[in-house]
Amino acid sequence: MDWHYIQPVDIHFGNGMLSCLSEQIAKLGGKRGILVTSSSFIENGLVKRLTEENPTTIATVYSGVSPNTDIKECDECSALIRKDKNDFVIALGGGSVIDCAKASAAFCLDNIPTSVYFEGKAQLPVRKLPLIAIPTTAGTGSEVTRVTVLTDHAHGVKTPLKAPVFYPTIAIVDPELTYTLPKYITACTGMDALCHAIEAYWNTSHHPISDAFAFHAANLAVRYLEQACFEPKSAIAREKMAEASLTAGMAFTLTGTTSVHACSYPLGAMLDMPHGEACGLTIDRFLRINAQSDKDGRLKRLARAMGYSDVEAVADAITELKFRIGLKNDLTHLNLTDGQIEQLVKNTQHPSMKNNPVPITEDILRNVYRSMVL
Ligand code: NAD
User: Fold this and answer.
1) Could you say which of 1.20.1600.10, 2.40.50.140, 3.40.50.10090, 1.20.1090.10 is the CATH number of the domain covering 179-373?
2) Whose CA is nearest to atom 5 of ligand 1?
3) Same fold for the pair 10-177 and 179-373
4) How far is CA 266 from CA 120, 307, 342, 369, in A?
5) How far does the chain reach from its first CA to its final CA, in angstroms?
6) 96 CA: nearest ligand 1 atom
7) Spacing, Cα 204 to ligand 1 middle (Å)
8) Which residue has a Cα nearest atom 9 of ligand 1?
């Protein structure tokens, strides 16, 4: 088996680690940075704290990022970077903020609209401004991936763009920043981490390093997600979920994602579902489908490592976990028409599908979506 391993992000992990931000800015030689964030961090005073602690080096704040960041927000942020001549970027927020910052740190240098890259009409850049990513959710792992996931809400399309330019320069992972996450967002984001781990593991491009990260992350997420939901200030649960998210990110950035994420893009773009909840809708369903062709017993080994007797037991446990932490297991409330189901099937034809260990036909997909509306 031939494989390649790279993880270029300089990672700092631990409770209270946010306090090393000034030191990291100095390490980059940053003079006039932009802090990219969402309005909730203006409201809770964290932006004020960081700008007061770094009065000269944080020169600009862009707080216009919304969940499932839109390509228009990347254009706004890039324009602000050019106007204020910022020389580095800090992302403080969930995956939506980090992805907006990743795109803007790269696209600002070429003055080409984000839509052009999004539609694949220009090659992705190779240069970017240095980027410090500070995640405030535990789920996407975006702080260590070469992916930015953007949405064109006007056309109902969501897609990941992948290139080495999107690796942040530095990641500061401080689990204490996740203590304010409400239960539902903890559940959605943690489910995303669990899906990254499992999809990296069963991925057709898996290799020994991605397997090691995926095993570790799947174990942590399945053990600590429920506790993080119900005990938001549990230091151990929050730390272990931040670790699960980070290591799952390190796994799937090597392999890509598979069927579960391919389905999550149309579910997110067409039905505006939170990303992690959209992933959770299909993970147990695809576990059951992929288990049918587990010839070399890889999935069974993962199930055992996660503390279950077989893959069916893992799928059952995840279905039950979704109910307990308040995530949807079906779409019956939306009364989807046959036409909408066909549209979901059509829009699921994403390249990640090719990484699934079992070839997923349109009929299988149709059955997966139909099982959610019965
Ligand atoms: P999010 O960034 O969309 O945030 C969800 C909500 O949580 C927002 O309202 C946000 O303001 C709020 N929030 C964030 N941190 C908070 C905190 N500490 N306390 C209180 N509220 C807080 O959610 P997410 O799941 O982190 O990111 C989802 C996005 O990331 C999707 O677009 C998804 O496709 C993308 N994604 C990217 C990658 C990648 O590698 N780039 C991987 C997976 C997913």
Assistant:
1) 1.20.1090.10
2) 67
3) no
4) 18, 33, 11, 12
5) 43
6) 2
7) 27
8) 67
Measured between alpha carbons, how far is residue 191 from residues 10, 11, 29, 140 in Å? 25, 23, 37, 9
Q: For residue 34, how far is its CA from the centre of ligand 1 (angstroms)?
A: 19
Which numbered atom of ligand 1 lies nearest the CA of 182?
Answer: 20
Could you list the pLDDT tens digit for every one of the 374 residues in the chain?
A: 899 899 999 999 999 999 999 999 999 999 999 999 999 999 999 999 999 999 999 999 999 999 989 999 999 999 999 999 999 999 999 999 999 999 999 999 998 999 999 999 999 999 999 999 999 999 999 999 999 999 999 998 888 999 999 999 999 999 999 999 999 999 999 999 999 999 999 999 999 999 999 999 999 999 999 999 999 999 999 999 999 999 999 999 999 999 999 999 999 888 888 999 999 999 999 999 999 999 899 999 999 999 999 999 999 999 999 999 999 999 999 999 999 999 999 999 889 999 999 999 999 999 999 999 98
Q: Counting atoms of ligand 1 from 1, which one is nearest the CA of 69?
A: 32
- Closest-lying ligand 1 atom to the alpha carbon of residue 38: 11
Give me ligand 1 centre to Cα 123, in Å: 26
In a 3-state reduction of DSSP, which class is residue 180? coil
Write the CATH number of the domain with boundaries 10-177: 3.40.50.1970
How many A from CA of 296 to the centre of ligand 1?
36
CA 262, 267, 268, 269: dihedral to nearest 10 degrees? Answer: 100
What does pTM read for this prediction?
Answer: 0.96
Which of 354, 188, 199, 198 shows the shortest CA–CA distance to 272? 188
Antiparallel, parallel or unpaired: β 157-162 and 147-152? antiparallel
Q: Locate the domains of the chain by residue range.
A: 10-177, 179-373
Cα(38) to ligand 1 centroid in Å equals 10
Residues having CB within 6 Å of any atom of ligand 1: 38, 40, 67-68, 93-97, 99, 136-137, 139-142, 145, 147-149, 177-178, 180-181, 185, 189, 192, 275-276
Cα(313) to centroid(ligand 1), Å: 29
Q: What is the DSSP letter of 336?
A: -
